[in-house]
Write a structure and sequence with these properties.
This protein has five helices and nine strands. The protein is α+β, with helices and mostly antiparallel strands. Among the domains are: about 50 residues, Ribosomal Protein L9, domain 1; about 80 residues, Ribosomal protein L9, C-terminal domain (Ribosomal Protein L9, domain 2), CATH 3.10.430.100. The longest helix is centred in the last third of the chain and has 56 residues. The chain is elongated and about 125 Å long. The N and C termini lie far apart (about 125 Å).
């Protein structure tokens, strides 16, 4: 079936594009959702009259995509999941989980625009996730998949490091206090010696 897209459709085309799709796809999804209209002279004329407005929206979408790409490229996601000692996950990391992690950071990305390597990640480690934006624009996001055990171990080490730093500061403070106290004692002893010397001089 020949249709005209009423809006951008991932992996198909952009608003105003004329496409040929399977009848079932058009009847069951594109036409009922308003994503497209049937191609005919009347609809073609309507879209021709809207060409300038459509192009203006495309320019705006390109600018938004470029801005979003810059922000997403700087993102590093961390997803914590249950895993065995070998690093194999009890389950997998999917595009839905990546979408939720991005949402927590304020990025609302359609799940179908998120491309996860091999469709599902099943081991801990570092990965690169592709997010398709507008036209050929896409972003590469860094993803660290961490096991719950790793997270607990990291928290334990951080707690130990914080405790060691606190003890080091305390020891340094005590050492400074002792040094000040020692200097005060020396000054006091010197003052006493001077007073005694002064008294002796008076007696003479």
């Amino acid at each position: 079936m020949k249709i005209i897209l009423n809006q951008d459709v991932v992996n198909l085309g952009e608003e105003g594009d004329v496409c040929v799709v399977k009848d079932g796809y058009a009847r069951n999804y594109l036409l009922p959702t308003g994503a497209a209209v049937i191609y005919n002279k009347s609809n073609a004329a309507i879209f021709a009259s809207r060409a300038a407005a459509i192009e203006k929206r495309k320019v705006e979408k390109r600018a938004e995509a470029a801005s979003l790409k810059e922000k997403l490229d700087a993102v590093t996601l961390e997803i914590v999941v249950p895993a065995g000692e070998s690093g194999k996950l009890f389950g997998s990391v999917t595009s839905i989980m990546v979408q939720e992690a991005l949402s927590k950071l304020g990025f609302e990305i359609e799940r179908k625009k998120i491309e996860v390597q091999t469709h599902a990640i099943k081991m801990t480690g570092s990965y690169t996730i592709t997010v398709h934006l507008y036209e050929n624009e896409s972003s590469q996001i860094k993803l660290n998949v961490v096991s719950e055990a790793e997270l607990k171990e990291r928290a334990r080490k951080e707690a130990e490091a914080a405790k060691a730093a606190e003890e080091a500061l305390k020891a340094e403070a005590e050492a400074k206090a002792a040094e000040v106290s020692e200097e005060a004692e020396v000054e006091a002893a010197e003052d006493v010696a001077l007073d005694e010397a002064s008294e002796e001089a008076k007696e003479e």
